[in-house]
Amino acid sequence: MKKMVVKDKYGNPYTLEFTRETVMQMERSGFNIADAESKPMSTIRGLFEGAFLANHKAMKPTTIEEIFTGLTNKAGLFEKLAEMYAEPYETLMEEPEEGNATWEINW
Amino acid sequence: MGDQLVGVESPSTEGGRKAPFTTAFWASLPAYLEMGMTESAFFEGDPALCKAYREAWKNREKHRVERENWAAWLMGGYVYTAMVLTAPAFNSLKPHKPADYMKKPMELTGISEEKKDDSLFEYMTAFMKRHNKNG
Q1: Touching check for A75 and chain B: CB below 8 Å?
Q2: Of A39, B23, B92, B125, which is most buried, counting CB atoms within 10 Å of its CB?
Q3: Residue-wise over A63-91: b if at least 16 C-beta within 10 A, else e?
Q4: Which residues in chain A are closer than 8 Å to B15, comparing Cβ atoms?
Q5: Does the pTM of the predicted model rise above 0.80?
Q6: What is the ipTM for the molecules in this complex?
């Protein structure tokens, strides 16, 4: 399972991760990863908040917001959170043992 | 009544919104339940567990096919033996009384995989020798 540990300003660690249950909870509350292009900031906020559901369900939104505001490199954070968010879905799919197709990025 | 039992939660949409992951999870759930995964392990457990369940399922299927193949081969062995035992009765020139069928099943336990082939062959060879001596 892909996990991320964030620390608040007091050094308290929080383990962030996604399960299928928490992903469904997020979708129930209206979160959609496809909105990342049109609403990047609310999407990253939603992802960050949702990542607390698995292990820190009782966290106050204000505390989460405080931690989020204090974090740097939000683009990198989004990339990793999106990777973690996709894991519950990706692990349902079979990886080809020897793929003969390739992909590349050009940005 | 069936509608009341299923569809508690619409898998394709949540409150009219699109929920693509939820849809995929519910669509995959029956397959994983069949593999022996519990609902809580599927939804609340480590997502990567699914890979292990798939791997275990593949191994189980492979072993099942191997066992079935072995059972079919063994059945062939019994049929072959029975045909050999009854063959003398079908000799149109000099019919004989068919030999008795085996008193007990062939000994299989304690025989290594490599020896399995040999055991039937040895049994048949011994039978042939005995039969030829008597005839």
Answers
A1: no
A2: B23
A3: ebeebeeeeeeeeebbeebeebbbbbbeb
A4: 28, 30
A5: no
A6: 0.83
